[in-house]
Amino acid sequence: MFCTGNNTLPATVPPSGPAQLNAAVTDSNVQTALNSLPTFSNGVQLVQAANGIVTRGANYANTLASQISSVTINTVFPANNHQLLMVAKLIGLRNTLGMSRQIFFC
Prior knowledge:
Structural class: mainly alpha
Largest sheet: 2 strands, parallel
Number of strands: 2
């Protein structure tokens, strides 16, 4: 809530990496149905706003997931400090993301 602004959107990335909506789906019919849900239009502004949030979140997660493995971290972190390693990877991607809005990781 504190990171949302006119030019910023908050994002939370767990130490294991971005959570993708399609990560656990193996059935193509289920995946097609999941992809069509955010495009559902019933004319209700609240539903449309929620659909936009889900779509943006899914797009950000997919972008991060596709690029996070390209970051090379040479710093040695304390054992089992996966959170700090993820922060370092996200910092390493800051110039690569190319998002239209700035993303703050809160």
